[in-house]
Amino acid sequence: CTMLKILQTLIKSGDMIGEALVPYYRQLLPMFNTYKNHNTNLGDGIDYNQRKRLNLGELIHETLEVLETYGGEDAFINIK
Question: CA 41 to CA 24: how far, in whole Å?
Fold first, then answer.
């Protein structure tokens, strides 16, 4: 979880950092795909890990959105 938070912060910290990471998507995306469905299903219960950002599936989804937003036009093609 910490690595995903750091990666999001790194991408948002500079203008061209997201675009510079596009060639490395081939290493990142398979691992994200493995764990992206790792969500906690509590039904009607409340998941307090969302507030602390500890839910792995949600963090991967957020990170993919950040990569898509800051990665330029090639990012969307590689992610989808």
Answer: 31
